[in-house]
Fold this sequence. Notes:
By secondary structure, this protein is of the alpha/beta class. Helices cover about 35% and strands about 20% of the residues. It has helices spanning about 25-30, 85-95, 130-135, 160, 170-190, 195-200; strands at about 5-10, 45-50, 55-60, 70-75, 100-110, 115-120, 145-150. It has a 7-stranded mixed beta sheet with strand order 2-3-4-1-5-7-6, sandwiched between helices. A hairpin with a 3-residue loop joins strand 2 and strand 3 (about 55-60). Helix 1 crosses helix 5 (about 170-190). Its main location: cytoplasm. Belongs to the PTH family. Keywords: Cytoplasm, Hydrolase, RNA-binding, tRNA-binding. GO terms for molecular function: peptidyl-tRNA hydrolase activity; tRNA binding.
Amino acid sequence: MSTWLVVGLGNPGPQYAGNRHNVGAMVVDELAARDASGVAGGRASFKTHRARARVAEIRLGTRPGGAPGPRTVLAVPGTYMNESGGPVAGLLKYYDVPLERLVVVHDELDIDAGAIRLKRGGGEGGHNGLRSITKSVGSKDYLRVRVGIGRPPGRQDPADFVLKDFGKVERDGLPFLLDDAADAVEALLEVGLEPAQQRFHAPR
């Protein structure tokens, strides 16, 4: 059974940890708590990989009959957002993961806050992390879990908006958003893109 690589985008360091731009990394941390191969009640632990990333190898989700889901490498690049491609390309090669089993989880300005959208390929929409990955892997044809953060209010610069922490109202709903996005990743791995889209793109 082929391995999956699930990458959560963000910037390294505690000063960025709560930023909207780091929601992809937050989702991957949520997935680490769902490791089906670990000790009951525990969570997967991350290790530093030579490809300049934090990684955790887990079994994500369950198969029919209750068997653990597919082997999955969770990863958060240790580089800044605009250099995410190098670690991702290195991990694809190291773990021998085909491009069709790469899932990138990232923040999305052009989706309403709290919404989740799934797609394969397409443009990067000005997202520097996606642009770097596309350049490094030589293709846009990878899966994306797009976590909506909405547009900035008024005339606030989008670059400033994504590098600010979630506001109080947003933080109240953040656990639900991370849970939904983690569910979307699991659905992609378990049932494929189109069935997962039907589930998460429907009015909820």
